[in-house]
Amino acid sequence: MSIVPEIKVKVAAVLKEMYGIETTESELTINSTKPEFEGDYTLVLFSFVKSLKKSPEQLGNEIGDALVKAHPALFTGYNVIKGFLNLTVADSYWICFLQSNYNQRRFGSKPANGQKVMVEYSSPNTNKPLHLGHLRNNFLGWSVAKILEESGYEIIKSCIVNDRGIHICKSMIAWQKFANGATPQSTGVKGDHFVGEYYVKFNDAYKAEVDQLINEGMDKATAEKEAPIMKETQQMLQDWEAGKPEVINLWNMMNSWVYEGFDVTYKRIGSDFQKMYYESDTYLLGKQFVEEGLQKGVFYKKDDGSVWIDLTADGLDEKLVLRKDGTSVYITQDIGLAQQKYDEFKYDQSIYVIADEQNYHMKVLKLILQKLGKPYAEGVYHLSYGMVELPTGRMKSREGTVVDADDMVDEMVNVAKQKTEELGKVKDFTEAELKELYDTIALGALKFFLLRVDPKKKMIFNPEESIDFHGFTGPFVQYTHARIRSILRKSEVSNQKSAATGLLKLEKDIVIMLEQYPTILEQAVAEHNPSVIAIYVFNLAKAFNTFYTEHSVMNAESEEKKQLRLQISEMTANVIASGMSLLGIRVPERM
RNA sequence: GGUCCGGUAGCUCAGCUGAAUAGAGCAACUGCCUUCUAAGCAGUAGGUCACAGGUUUGAAUCCUGUCCGGAUCACCA
After folding, report:
1. Tell me, what's the ipTM?
2. In angstroms, how far is B33 C1' from A549 CA?
3. Which of A127, A210, A419, A503 has the lowest CB atom count within 10 Å?
4. What does the pLDDT read at residue A133?
5. How far apart are CA A388 and CA A442, in angstroms?
6. In terms of DSSP H, where are the helices of A243-297?
7. Separation of CA A8 and C1' B52 in angstroms?
8. CA A503 to mean position of chain CA atoms
9. Which nucleotide is nearest to A531 (CA to C1')?
10. A76-100 pLDDT, tens per residue?
11. Residue with CA nearest B14 C1'?
């Protein structure tokens, strides 16, 4: 058991024995003792003062006395200040904890719990390359999956590719019109970027046609509908749905270009999936549920044949689930896909990593599944994350302010290279080693930057800050790891029982933090939130650096001290490495 | 307009299941490399926690209202 719950159990026993009051764990507040006071953990006394009719000081002294007397191996002292009982945990407890965990590679991980979780993330469109927003999504989804996996869940990472629809036809039409048969191969442009260029070309051509029609006296709305290129695109969508071979061939060809490009990007940023879904396969799913919903009285049909669900009683609106022409809408497809996923994997939980602009949609999806009585409805969880904005405001593809994912990674690699060369610490590295190091640092910086903020909140991406490798950053944590590894390379850590008997303040600070790691991991799981790990790992690295400048490991005062510090160092390196791995960040031996 | 989310130091963010004098990083200023990697450390300065009420022994945190910003409410996806 972790130390905090253990303290709570002991306190509860004392309260029961001395005053006859029953307390639950949540009624007891144990905080880390503020650095300006003596002690490790603090019990807040106020809540008992009233019912026990004792002054906080008296109560604190009584409880403190009883705790020290009953558990001399755990508590070595206490002090009471105002309504706070500050408890000092025995050094021997911390040393023993360190001794038994310092060389564990996966401290904090849990055995399989039999629960199966699907995590759907990334969800790209096949008409343009990935951008900064996708990166946040990919890093989040991957990390949450990894965090759950480390905590004993079986994970299936999945991805739904939006590979059909009007937006896909736009780039197809533009390619037909403007490409003269050009291909990624013939131009040397990465496939997803290549196709993205034609999507842009479509919009340019479309805009020109609309402007011309307006100049000829047409109103804007009509012009947007009547523009010839738009009509061609809509025709193409119909041809696609009808399965017209030349359209399908073109579609297959252009999508394959995009996938080649995506493969490169995914590999580079470390995204992977066990199961791919394609909207072209799933867009017709869900229609069967319309009939089921009608029979169960969950849906109703309007005179024009369209089918709806009334969610006004749940504080939402009426929502269309089937068009009057009998085709399904997005939400209907999602119902179908949820069922298909469940049929195949029988998941306990299904996490959808989708931006918060779809909060309403996901609420509706879950509600409909519940109303249809689906057994998996409760397990549907929308991991909603905020949009990434630039200091200048929202990214807008039409205004060309979108930050491209590949460009972003390239730039980070360049910065990593430049800074590494400036510092000149790894001049003996081979080309291959250098390349790997630049990648490790670049992606570490980028991932840490995007994962360190609470997913729920929108974030401002400041390019200048993102290339800073000092302070609250991935490279700072990586650097701390490299520093520790440097020490460990030079010295054997003895597996002998530590002979050390006491801990200095800065030594204990680190051990206390290390002990908290499993609790932090639990919090990250409960909140589906990687940022708590990023923050923790940064604080741990910071504490180690403080210790490092103050005390020497290699030239410690005694052999016992040296061994103790080596153990602290090794465990810190291990916890940094595993914490960072949960964020999808590698950690170098040297940098 | 309805619903939802947010407003904490110049900037980016923690803290939000109530608890001690509100914390980091960046930016600014001061120091520290003959000693295990200075991508580091130590220090100074910087706050009416949007505003007003309320609950409480105690509120950045909970409740109500107001102001400001954003998202959403498509037979789009």
Report:
1. 0.96
2. 11
3. A419
4. 93
5. 19
6. 245-269, 279-282, 287-295
7. 40
8. 36
9. B14
10. 999 999 899 999 999 999 999 999 9
11. A535
